[in-house]
Amino acid sequence: MTTLIARTRTRAVETLSLDSPDTRNALSADLVGQLAAALARSAKDPEVRAVVLTHTGTTFCAGADLRDPPHPEALVGVLRQLVELPKPVVARITGHVRAGGLGLLAACDLAAASTAATFAFTEVRIGVAPAVISLPVLPRTDPRALARYYLTGERFDPPEAVRLGLLTTAADDVDDALAPMLDGLRRSAPQALAETKRLLTARVLETFDRDAAELSALSARLFSSDQAREGMTAFLERRDAAWVV
User: Fold this and answer.
1) Residues contacting residue 233 through CB under 8 Å, at least 6 positions apart
2) pLDDT for 76-99, tens place per residue?
3) Which superfamily does 1-173+190-245 belong to?
4) What pTM value is reported for the model?
5) Strand ranges (E), 74-124
6) What are the residue boundaries of the structural domains of the chain, listed by start?
């Protein structure tokens, strides 16, 4: 099996890199499964103080792999793992983030991006909705500001992602921006980090408990619809979908 998640460790910080640049780190069933397994290992390892989630290539994550999409419940599971992990998870982004990739981003506790990054909720343009990823996205963002990008699929930049609540910070040098955060995590007691994270994620997990089944069903229904088939075909063929006017 091809390894799709690269792992490194520096001074108690485990870095997990989405490592399928040929597919723009799209969320395939295999990638989601391997990420879930890597997170489970990090959660159990007493030597890991925090996890950095990053990527190879120019794209953090392009969203669902349209040729091999994960089951909605599998995506719910890995998003919940990120939220529930008893160690802080920090997103490090130097490229583009689309659709389901924004779910991964929102599930992290801290997030920094370089000013070269771009973001878009592109689901509406292929005939689906940002259903499952809403579980971490909606509780952590400004709803009025988010409505524009959910409904239009427009691209937005890192300062706008900070304003929405998707990013902690944006900087020309993302590693310089992350350095004080990672230093702070290394200086913090593991028990204190775990309990503080529980305080911060309580509302997000309430959303998972209340809405996960409904949003998984919505995702499955939309992905099997005629409009989604047309939208995904148009995307793969690099043409406008039939409804574009």
Assistant:
1) none
2) 999 999 999 999 999 999 999 999
3) 2-enoyl-CoA Hydratase; Chain A, domain 1 (3.90.226.10)
4) 0.96
5) 89-93, 96-98, 110-114, 118-120
6) 1-173+190-245
